[in-house]
Design goal:
about 270 residues, alpha/beta, seven-stranded mixed sheet, 9 helices, about 30% helix, about 25% strand, globular
Length: about 270
């Protein structure tokens, strides 16, 4: 069994729990330790059940709760060396025991319990950001957010998934006409920014196969997107795209920004 539980996913904070019957880890901790614990409790888990915290990159919406969790749980924390260095310079996180940090390298697998994790380099304006593909030896999922664009290498490393949590950050028109200052708009739209709803749907088209399971759209912008728009745009890209599949061929969920989302579980 492999499962994915979104505790929070959005531009204001991200925390995903993934696991098997025997192993559970967090991917990112961008919300308060209290909210992480409350979310885990709703899934029937506790912070003490976590065997690691995997960090995608050092932006505050992915690490804001890391210091509290590190001090409370004392679990290993995995991130690239450059990301660890950036986190150590964030005084807002408080003191973190340096022995808890475990450096990883993109495209080099590592093991936690009965799960194997494969970090994937992504394009984002952070020190050395990664997405994570993971497997229990039978099923394979991925969590991929915070990428301005994707290429053949990323697509190649995401083939054969049973499920994915995929960024669908913004609607381009909402962003362009919204209140954000021009430099921020350009950053989000750039190669090191975030995936739009359209690009999310186009990437999904590259990943679909006959036995594909579920997709959860995540990391939606509070100001430049909303659930129904992301859902319908991605569905349209899949149905109208150059692939043999239609949107109704598999379940599509949208991760909640401030609460838990439906659990994706594959036996």
């Amino acid at each position: 069994m492999l499962e994915l539980c979104s505790i929070a996913s959005g531009s204001s904070g991200n925390c995903i729990c993934v696991g098997t019957d025997n192993t559970h880890v967090l991917i990112d901790a961008g919300i308060s330790g209290k909210r992480v614990e409350a979310g885990l409790n709703e899934f029937g888990l506790k912070g003490e059940d976590m065997q690691g915290i995997l960090i995608t990159h050092e932006h505050s919406d992915h690490v804001a709760g890391l210091g509290v969790l590190a001090r409370k749980l004392g679990v290993p924390m995995y991130a690239t060396a450059a990301t660890i260095q950036a986190i150590k310079g964030m005084h807002s996180l408080g003191k973190i025991d340096e022995s808890l940090f475990h450096p990883i390298r993109p495209e080099e697998e590592f093991q936690i319990g009965d799960m194997s994790f494969h970090p994937i380099s992504i394009s984002h304006d952070a020190a050395d950001p990664v997405a994570y593909r993971f497997t229990n030896g039978k099923q394979t999922f991925a969590v991929i957010t915070d990428l301005g664009d994707y290429d053949e290498n990323i697509v190649g490393q995401l083939q054969g998934l049973d499920a994915v949590l995929l960024e669908s950050n913004h609607d381009i028109r909402m962003l362009q006409t919204g209140p954000y200052p021009y430099p921020l708009k350009q950053r989000i739209l750039g190669k090191n920014g975030h995936l739009s709803n359209e690009r999310s749907g186009q990437l999904l088209c590259e990943l679909l196969h006959d036995n594909f399971g579920s997709v959860m759209l995540g990391h939606l912008s509070k100001e430049n997107n909303y659930e129904e728009l992301a859902y319908e745009t991605v569905r349209m890209e899949v149905t109208m795209g150059d692939n043999p599949y239609k949107a109704e061929d598999f379940p599509i969920y949208v991760a909640k920004r401030d609460s838990i989302s439906p659990v994706i579980r594959v036996e």
